[in-house]
Amino acid sequence: MITSVLPAPRRADRAVADASATAWALAARNGDPQATERFVRALHGDVLRYVVHLSGDPQTAHDLTQDTFVRALDSLPGFEGRASARTWLLSIARRAVADSFRRAAVRPRLADAHDWQLALERAQPSGLPGFDDGIALLDLLESLPDERREAFVLTQVVGLPYDEAARFIGCPVGTIRSRVARARTTLERLLREAETEAAVQAA
């Protein structure tokens, strides 16, 4: 089942991590270089995962993640810690992805399949098992409607609490729960279908 592939982060652990990252961001705002490094390290994986799944383009995920942190570090003087540093960074990442879509619309380019697959492997979260028979998580997520994919990625991959994801997207928390439940149902069905197909091919 998909739940065994994507274990939900423990809320207590995530709250502690968020508090630490926010404190480092505030210290980095005041010119502490060690705090800046810790801030980037603490949230780099979350931003990368979000960018990969939101953009659907692992080939440029690392560049977009770097762009997100460049924008964030430039904007740190205005960060006051009213929201967690992670939520603040994800909002910057969302704008970076939107800007990349606008640039791509003006200057479209073709992705090399080999490089795309290699980038996807590098962009997968560390410690997150892949699907059997080479079924990539991104392939399944791409089949979801945009709003369900974003809700699922924010809560099940990045680990935002439902209420925080709702504030981030700008919708009621019940809507987030509904989107995640529907996304999970679809992903479980697709995973079962893929496993059945793989079993038939192996027979």
Architecture overview:
With 203 residues, the protein is an all-alpha fold. It has ten helices and no strands. It has helices spanning 2-5, 11-29, 33-55, 61-75, 85-106, 113-123, 137-141, 146-158, 162-169, 173-202. It starts with a helix and ends with a helix.
Layout of strands and helices, then pairs:
Elements: H1 2-5, H2 11-29, H3 33-55, H4 61-75, H5 85-106, H6 113-123, H7 137-141, H8 146-158, H9 162-169, H10 173-202
Count of beta strands = 0
Helix content: over 70%
Low-confidence stretches: 1-8, 107-135
- Structural class estimated from helices and strands: mainly alpha
Rg, alpha carbons: 18 Å
The profile of the biggest β sheet is: none
What's the tally of helices? 10
Question: What's the mean pLDDT score?
Answer: 76
> Termini distance?
22 Å
Helix and strand run: HHHHHHHHHH
* General form: elongated
| Strand-residue proportion | under 5%
Quickly describe the structure.
74% of the residues lie in helices and 0% in strands. With 203 residues, it is mainly α. Helix 2 packs across helix 3, helix 3 crosses helix 4 and helix 8 crosses helix 10.
What keyword list fits this structure?
10 helices; 203 residues; elongated; mainly alpha; 74% helix
